[in-house]
Write a sequence for this structure.
């Protein structure tokens, strides 16, 4: 009897698995996986899972005055995807239906369904945004079904009938339903993998569009650059309409309903105003959420992302569909990626504008540190990583943006050694992504020295010089060691590499700088100019023996002319 029951349950459990697969193909379900669904969508999915539980009851196999069923699959799946509230609600729906069917286990099965949904939801809360592994789902199913058997034994009467029932259905239900819950989570994993593939493709598409828009956005965000940019995105063929705004008006609108969404007709939509004020991405899945003042507007869903410069919102990018509930995870990945790239381009444009306002000496110092080839190579590296390692590509973009923000806001100032090292580490993160195992970095930094001031852009050009002229010519790369310590009234910082070295006796780069060593001489002269001839750089090197650059500056925790706090 047990073996026969086991195979019959496996046969009927496949119905729930098939429903799970069909459900995973709907965008609303995928939004639930990424916790992007609104209240009405969550309620709808909860009801669906509840009905999957009811279907599991109807597909049950009569055993005496009870049913061996797969109701738990729908209930626990709701909890594992949506959390305690969805799991409990689905349990109430499926369990309440079972209670109304009657039988001596009606109350036991009804209450156990609720507890199983709650249990699955609590597990989901523990995992937060991470996907629950299939084996955890299997264990959760085992625990949930064991709990149901215990509840039957404790609440169903007469006890002898309850015990006989548990003996008959216990093991088959525990095994089959636990397997069903695990299969459900595997189906979800497949759906998420598909979305990740779409996300990688969207990231690549965003980078391609960013490359095409670079010549326009380098002039800043105005009507001309916005119109060209919106047209490029629209021509990619994914959206029915594309718009770009600043903080006050629509700069460009291309596509459906462009006649009444231009700057000369309607103002900003409610959704756009919300993004401008909060600085956060917003998804509108219907016309009401878009908030267009035109009653007959055909635009039915949209994703709106802020455009920022130096963490300040300067406008928005809006991507529209003419059908409701059309915005999916791939749109979110694309919109976030393209907005971040646009923001970086606009920030670089602002850097360029600010750089033109500084003195000629500071401009030369800046250009001495930021090698255009470094930027070119970094962008190539990011391009190659967009599809294979999108998270790493995003991290490198953030590091690149941080470097340029640092250059813009800190040039010509003294900062703490801790801040300077943070800039150096951002640079090295990018270089290690390019060179991989060929570049090894070691640090020996005394915490006591991190509070002292140092001119900005002092260590990074020395590290760049070590990589470019010391390690790159070596086939197997090498190691760079950065150390900093106190030495009496001074700070001594050392950058040591095991690269190809140079003949400093024949020609010292500090005394007679060669074009390839302009970074070294620039740092040396700036230090001597600020602190005097007793400070600056010293070099120790020989061909084939690596290079050691030593930097010496006085201890200072506040700039001259300031009072010590």
């Amino acid at each position: 009897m047990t073996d026969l029951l086991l195979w019959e349950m496996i046969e009927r459990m496949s119905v729930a698995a098939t429903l799970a697969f069909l459900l995973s193909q709907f965008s609303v379900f995928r939004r639930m996986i990424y916790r992007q669904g609104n209240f009405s969508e969550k309620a709808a999915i909860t009801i669906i899972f509840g009905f999957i539980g009811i279907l599991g009851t109807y597909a049950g196999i009569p055993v005496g005055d009870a049913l061996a069923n797969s109701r738990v699959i729908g209930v626990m799946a709701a909890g594992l995807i949506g959390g305690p509230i969805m799991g409990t609600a689905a349990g109430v729906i499926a369990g309440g239906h079972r209670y109304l069917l009657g039988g001596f286990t009606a109350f036991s099965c009804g209450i156990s369904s609720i507890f199983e949904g709650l249990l699955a939801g609590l597990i989901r809360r523990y995992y937060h945004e991470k996907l629950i592994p299939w084996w955890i789902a299997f264990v959760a199913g085992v625990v949930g079904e064991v709990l149901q058997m215990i509840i039957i034994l404790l609440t169903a009467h007469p006890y002898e009938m309850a015990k006989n029932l548990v003996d008959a259905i216990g093991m088959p239900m525990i095994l089959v339903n636990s397997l069903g819950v695990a299969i459900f989570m595997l189906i979800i994993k497949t759906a998420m993998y598909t979305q990740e593939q779409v996300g990688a493709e969207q990231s690549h598409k965003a980078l391609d569009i960013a490359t095409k828009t670079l010549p326009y956005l380098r002039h800043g965000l105005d009507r001309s650059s916005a119109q060209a940019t919106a047209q490029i995105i629209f021509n990619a063929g994914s959206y029915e309409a594309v718009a770009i705004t600043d903080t006050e008006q629509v700069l460009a609108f291309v596509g459906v309903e462009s006649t009444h969404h231009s700057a000369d007709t309607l103002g900003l939509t409610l959704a756009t105003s919300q993004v401008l004020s909060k600085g956060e991405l917003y998804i509108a899945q219907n016309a009401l959420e878009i908030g267009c003042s035109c009653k007959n507007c055909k635009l039915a869903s949209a994703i709106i992302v802020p455009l920022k410069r130096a963490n300040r919102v300067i406008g928005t990018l809006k991507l529209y569909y003419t059908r409701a509930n059309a915005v999916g995870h791939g749109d979110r990945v694309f919109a976030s990626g393209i907005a971040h790239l646009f923001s970086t381009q606009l920030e670089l444009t602002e850097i360029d504008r600010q750089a033109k306002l500084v003195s000629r000496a500071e401009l030369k110092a800046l250009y001495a540190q930021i090698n255009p080839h470094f930027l070119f190579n970094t962008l190539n590296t990011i391009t190659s990583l967009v599809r294979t390692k999108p998270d790493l590509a995003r991290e490198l973009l953030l590091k690149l943006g941080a470097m340029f923000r640092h250059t813009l806001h800190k040039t010509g100032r003294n900062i703490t050694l801790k801040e300077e090292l943070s800039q150096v580490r951002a640079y090295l993160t990018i270089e290690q992504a390019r060179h991989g195992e060929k570049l090894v970095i070691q640090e020996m930094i005394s915490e006591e020295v991190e509070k002292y001031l140092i001119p900005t852009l002092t260590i990074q050009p020395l590290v760049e010089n070590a990589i470019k002229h010391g390690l790159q010519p070596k086939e197997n790369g090498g190691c760079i060691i950065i150390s900093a310590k106190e030495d009496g009234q001074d700070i001594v910082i050392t950058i040591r590499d095991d690269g190809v070295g140079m003949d400093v006796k024949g020609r010292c780069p500090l005394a007679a700088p060669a074009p390839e060593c302009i970074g070294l001489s620039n740092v040396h002269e700036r230090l001597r100019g600020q602190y005097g001839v007793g400070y600056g750089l010293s070099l120790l090197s020989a061909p084939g023996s690596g290079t050691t650059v030593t930097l010496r500056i006085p201890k200072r925790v506040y700039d001259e002319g300031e009072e010590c706090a």
Observations:
- The chain has three domains: 1-196, 219-366, 372-554.
- The domain at 372-554 is CATH 3.30.565.10 (Heat Shock Protein 90).
